[in-house]
Write a structure and sequence with these properties.
Strand content: under 5%
InterPro entries: DUF4199
Largest sheet: none
Keywords: Membrane, Transmembrane, Transmembrane helix
Helix content: 55-70%
Radius of gyration: 30 Å
Pfam family, one: DUF4199
Organism: Hymenobacter amundsenii
Protein name: DUF4199 domain-containing protein
Structural class: mainly alpha
Distance between the termini: 88 Å
Length: 201
C-alpha cells in the first residue's frame, strides 16, 4: 500500500503590477534637500570673506599699509557677494522665483558670513604681525588728520569732529576687527534690501 504525502500549497502571489512612467508621481529635485538659502549664503560668504583677507595680505606684501584707506576698497566686496548670492538662489526656485524674504535673507546672511570671516582673519593678522605695524599705521593716520585739520576747522563743530576722529582710531587687534565687521556688514545689508526686492522673482 502506497502512502502519498499531502503537500500544502500556499496562496498564489500575484506579480506586482508595473506602472507606466507617465503615471509615477513627480519627484522634487535633490537640490532642494539642503537649504538653498543657507548653502548659497555660506558658499558666497566664505569665498568673499577669504578675498577680503587676501586683499589685506596683498597690501601687506606690497609694502602698503594694510590698515590704511586702501583696505576700505574691500568694503565693496560684501555688496557684490550679496547680489551674487541672490542671483544664484534663483536657480533653485524656477520659474516662480525665491520670493522676497528668501531673497533678502540670503543677501543678509551672505553679508554676515563675509563680515565674520573678514573680521576674524583681520584680528588674527593683527595679532601675528604685532603692535609695530599698528603703531606705524597710527602715525600715518595722525599725520593725515593733521594735514586735513584746516578743513575740519572750517566746518561747524569741526574741532570736535577732528578730535572724535582722532580718538576713534582703532589701536588694538580687537578694535580693527570690530571696525572691519561693522563696515562690511553695513554695506552688504544696504545692498541686500533693494537687491532682494528686484531679484525676488
Amino acid at each position: 500500500m502506497r502512502c502519498f504525502a499531502a503537500v500544502a500549497v500556499g496562496p498564489l502571489v500575484r506579480p506586482t503590477s508595473i506602472l507606466p512612467p507617465h503615471s509615477l508621481p513627480a519627484l522634487k529635485p535633490t537640490t532642494a534637500t539642503p537649504s538653498p538659502v543657507l548653502r548659497t549664503a555660506v558658499l558666497c560668504g566664505a569665498i568673499t570673506g577669504a578675498l577680503c583677507f587676501v586683499w589685506v595680505l596683498f597690501l601687506y606684501v606690497s609694502d602698503n599699509n594694510p590698515y590704511g584707506p586702501k583696505r576700505t576698497l574691500a568694503d565693496f566686496f560684501p555688496p557684490i557677494a550679496a547680489i551674487a548670492s541672490q542671483v544664484l538662489l534663483r536657480r533653485y526656485y524656477q520659474p516662480e522665483g525665491p520670493g522676497l524674504w528668501k531673497s533678502i535673507g540670503t543677501g543678509m546672511l551672505t553679508t554676515l558670513v563675509v563680515a565674520l570671516i573678514a573680521a576674524a582673519t583681520l584680528y588674527l593678522f593683527a595679532r601675528l604681525t604685532g603692535p609695530g605695524l599698528i603703531e606705524q599705521h597710527l602715525a600715518e593716520a595722525r599725520l593725515l588728520l593733521e594735514n586735513t585739520k584746516a578743513l575740519y576747522l572750517k566746518e561747524a563743530n569741526g574741532l570736535q569732529q577732528y578730535e572724535a576722529t582722532l580718538r576713534n582710531l582703532a589701536r588694538t587687534p580687537a578694535g580693527f576687527a570690530q571696525d572691519e565687521f561693522f563696515k562690511k556688514l553695513f554695506f552688504g545689508v544696504l545692498i541686500s534690501l533693494p537687491g532682494g526686492v528686484f531679484l525676488r522673482k
